[in-house]
Write a structure and sequence with these properties.
Number of helices: 10
Number of strands: 59
Protein name: S-layer homology domain-containing protein
Distance between the termini: 115 Å
CATH architecture of the largest domain: Sandwich
Keywords: Signal
Pfam families: Cadherin-like, fn3, SLH
CATH class of the largest domain: Mainly Beta
Strand content: 35-45%
Structural class: mainly beta
Helix content: 10-25%
Number of domains: 7
CATH topology of the largest domain: Chondroitinase Ac, Chain A, domain 3
Radius of gyration: 37 Å
């Protein structure tokens, strides 16, 4: 009976849920993490595989982090923000948004299941100082004090400003800043701003303060200038100034102006208007005192002028940077210079010129006078010591500091390398070209590129997974590998790796074939080139080229004779070719090339003279002597001489060591005149006739209203080449509509159109500023009058009128290339084009001279703008003559 009752009781427990059967142990979740860590960041709670939401806070200085996630299942896949990582290994760097929340998602997949973990990281703003206050410490002085919030570690520096002008900076931990030079009884506003170690600022704290004492009005200077530039910008509140004078300046004139009713003394002598004082070599100090009308208040200013020493043979003649302007103007006797370049500049070229008898060294390395010393730049300060030693052993030393800026944001490219290959250049995210030489045995190259998400790279034509390589086959000789970096936001940067694979005998090869080289006498045969090197020879008489030496090595494949001469003053820089040698070159159709340094003179075989030719290419001691004031020389001056053949045509090739765009911008002057030039493959070309002196450099012409404009680069290029100008107020006014006369002026000037047709337009008078340009354009047949024989110079020119002019120009240009697949019928408003302009408009479109105002509109009746005109003229010049 008891056994039956126990059985019934058990059934009741089961039926009414009063008893539960223990469940079987749960199977492990393979789509889970066993550990999760964030570099440099502490999560709000300890990690547990079942917890999927985390948060963290970091200070303002932490800009990036990495995630290391380990999967429970060894076969699971893990992605961090969509990028695959290996279990237990760190991810690519993740950028943390400033003053914001960055979400990091870790996704684990295994056995068809998946689990997502989210970490929200808040990057705090730069903190502000606490308890800021100011109090007077006298009638003209005060002290600002503050404290740092508890636990804050990212408040490094505090800047104090007075009425918008920065007074100075101190360490945040100092807790105070002392102020002097206040006027009694005057009200001021001060700003206290904290900065972290990476230069980011917090919110300012604003303090108002009225200085103690009774106000008698400000007794300050309203103007202070010298007859030489001050180093500092004048401000009535600034009390100390400095300036530098050349040795040749033995006097200085000071022009101070005080507030109304005040009187001024310089070195205790009352003046009226100005005062001229003598300068000694070295430091000169002048005290300028402004005294109030009641003589109870005065303000003292100090002006310190340093007069430089007299120049000697061991002084530099010039110091410049290619493409970069020094902060201080070069001046004989000045020994310290600085310059700033953006992060995007990974290198710089320093050009120094001194007497040819001296030895110049930059950081201990000898450098020839007038040549560019190329150097790499690290982020921050780069210091260069330049010494000039004359024959008597006297040494002058100069200091140059080039500061390279920091990137506005972290570069997406972290590393770029080829396995087991050492580049000639060190890696820098801003450097886009790398070179190396590899042995013959290396048939393939493993190219690695590491990037930050969401960026990705394409190496050659292959997409590179994060942390993986792309294998590239190498041929003997030159191999060019393109690495395209996509930053994930629409911007692309291309990096180029140039690998030279040696031949099987360890020699350099060209397209897989070893270059033949055999030495016979003084002439060497190299491929299709006959080469004569006389750079080590000295003498003042021209070197006579020996025809028999040429004949011994000549082959049917030979195309030119290259003669290399030296740069030194006593080097052989002139050659002579007699009638027989010239006849041989002409008969065999051999071009002649004379090289010295990075300049060469070239003559085609059919342009060689019949009579004796003496050709000279000499480096001069001057640099940029013909360039306009303020230009930046790119090389020393050279002199081309053609002996008795004063009208001989010579093509000059210049290697200015500039980028292609800056090579295009560079100008060349020949015999005091701006030369017509072209650029190709980073080389500059100019044609000369007879004896010529050449100078080359960069002209900086900046306009104050084109930054960010779509035509910015075209305008800068054309202005640098002195083909266009701006207005007296420093503006270019790119979107201003252009008149018919203005457009023709730009076109004729840029194309150097010639012509002397005597036109008879009823509305163009001979004394008009545009008369000559309209006359030349009319003579060239590119402009015509209307039915009333009027040119209408002051009317706005329409886009179809511009197209018609370019259409006529193109029709008169031989072998013009039409590369555009678009034509006039590709645009919806083609019917708005006047019948007389349709053919010309179509030609201009197919020639890529003119494009639509949008993808589908030509806007033929719209007035052309100054920017549109410049861009069209630039395109035409580049397509027909080269820039």
């Amino acid at each position: 009976m008891k056994r039956i009752s126990h059985y019934i009781l058990f059934i009741l427990f089961i039926s009414f849920g009063l008893y539960s059967v223990p469940a079987a142990a749960a199977a492990p979740d393979n789509a889970s993490l066993s550990s999760l860590t964030i570099e440099g960041i502490k999560l709000d709670q300890p990690f547990h595989e079942s917890t999927t939401q985390y948060s963290a806070k970091v200070n303002s200085e932490l800009q990036q982090t990495t995630v290391t996630a380990t999967a429970r299942d060894t076969g699971a896949t893990i992605t961090v923000n969509g990028m695959k990582i290996n279990s237990g290994n760190p991810s690519q760097e993740i950028q943390l948004a400033a003053d914001s929340i960055t979400s990091i998602t870790v996704l684990v997949k295994a056995d068809g299941a998946e689990k997502s973990y989210t970490i929200n990281v808040t990057r705090n703003p730069v903190p502000s100082v606490l308890s800021a206050s100011i109090k007077s410490t006298g009638e003209t002085a005060a002290i600002v004090t503050w404290s740092i919030p508890a636990g804050v570690t990212d408040l490094e520096t505090v800047f104090v400003s007075q009425d918008g002008n920065t007074l100075g900076q101190v360490k945040a931990s100092d807790g105070e800043f002392r102020i002097t030079g206040l006027s009694p009884g005057r009200q001021y506003q001060f700003s206290i701003v904290g900065y972290n170690k990476i230069g980011k600022s917090g919110s300012p704290v604003i303090l108002s303060h009225t200085s103690s004492g009774q106000s008698v009005g400000d007794v300050k200077l309203t103007t202070l200038r010298l007859d030489i530039p001050l180093h500092e910008t004048f401000s009535p509140a600034r009390l100390s100034y400095t300036a530098t004078a050349a040795y040749t300046k033995d006097k200085i004139t000071i022009y101070p102006v005080g507030v109304s009713g005040s009187k001024i003394k310089i070195n205790n002598t009352e003046i009226s208007g100005q005062m001229t004082l003598p300068l000694i070599v070295g430091l000169n100090e002048f005290k300028v005192e402004v005294i109030g009308s009641n003589t109870q208040q005065s303000t003292h200013y100090i002006v310190k002028v340093t007069r430089l020493n007299q120049s000697t043979k061991s002084d530099l003649i010039s110091l410049s940077l290619l493409d970069v302007k020094l902060n201080e103007a070069f001046m004989s006797g000045r020994t310290s210079y600085t310059a700033h370049v953006p992060f995007e500049r990974a290198d710089a070229a320093i050009v120094t010129t001194a007497d040819t008898s001296t030895v110049i060294k930059i950081n201990g390395s000898p450098i020839a006078s007038g040549t560019a010393h190329n150097t790499t730049l690290v982020v921050g300060d780069n210091h260069f010591n330049i010494t000039v030693t004359d024959p008597e052993g006297r040494i002058n030393s100069y200091n140059l500091k080039i500061t390279r800026g920091t990137p506005s944001s972290s570069s997406p490219l972290r590393s770029l390398f080829v396995e087991d290959v050492k580049f000639t250049e060190w890696f820098d995210p801003a450097r886009t070209n790398y070179t190396a030489t590899v042995p013959f045995e290396k048939e393939t190259a493993k190219v690695f590129a590491f990037v930050n998400a969401p960026a990705y790279v394409v190496i050659g034509n292959s997409y590179a997974q994060a942390g993986n390589f792309v294998n590239v086959s190498l041929q003997e000789g030159s191999n060019v590998i393109k690495v395209a970096l996509h930053d994930g936001y629409g911007k692309q940067t291309t990096y180029t790796i140039h690998l030279i694979r040696l031949g099987s005998t360890g020699t350099n090869t060209n397209n897989g074939k070893t270059t033949e080289s055999k030495l016979v006498g003084s002439v060497v045969l190299k491929g299709d080139t006959l080469e004569l090197d006389i750079r080590e020879k000295s003498g003042t008489t021209p070197y006579k080229v020996n025809l028999e030496d040429i004949k011994k090595v000549y082959s049917d494949k030979s195309k030119k004779l290259v003669i290399k001469v030296g740069e030194a003053n006593d080097s052989q820089h002139a050659i002579t070719l007699d009638n027989n040698t010239l006849g041989f070159l002409k008969d065999k159709k051999l071009a002649l090339r004379l090289e010295v340094g990075k300049i060469s003179a070239n003559l085609k075989s059919n342009e060689l003279p019949v009579d004796v030719l003496t050709l000279s290419l000499k480096r001069l001691s001057s640099m940029g002597s013909q360039l306009p004031k303020g230009s930046i020389p790119a090389m020393v001056d050279y002199q081309v001489s053609t002996g008795n053949h004063k009208s001989l045509h010579v093509d000059i090739e210049l290697n200015l060591d500039l980028t292609l765009e800056n090579t295009k911008r560079a100008v060349v002057y020949q015999n005091e005149k701006l030369a017509r030039t072209s650029a190709h493959n980073n080389l500059k070309y100019v044609s000369v006739y007879g004896d010529t002196i050449l100078s080359a450099g960069m002209i900086e012409r900046r306009f104050n209203d084109i930054l960010g404009h779509w035509a910015n680069e075209d305008i800068q290029l054309m202005a640098a080449r002195q083909l266009i100008g701006g207005y007296e107020d420093g503006a270019f006014r790119p979107d201003q509509q252009i008149t018919r006369a203005e457009f023709i002026q730009v076109l004729v000037t840029a194309l150097e159109l010639k012509g002397d047709k005597s036109m008879q337009y009823a509305d163009v008078q001979e004394d008009a500023w545009y008369y000559d340009s309209v006359n030349r354009a009319s003579a060239a047949g590119i402009v015509k009058g209307d039915k009333k024989n009027q040119f209408r110079p002051n009317e706005k020119i329409t886009r179809e009128e511009i197209a018609a002019i370019f259409g006529r120009l193109i029709e008169n240009t031989e072998n013009f290339s039409y590369t555009n697949t678009l034509n006039i019928h590709s645009f919806k408003d083609v019917n708005q084009v006047s019948p007389w302009a349709k053919d010309a408009f179509n030609i201009a479109i197919q020639a890529r001279i003119i494009s639509g105002t949008s993808e589908k509109l030509l806007s033929p009746k719209a007035s052309g703008t100054r920017a549109q005109a410049v861009v069209m003229v630039r395109r035409f010049i580049e397509f027909t003559q080269g820039l």
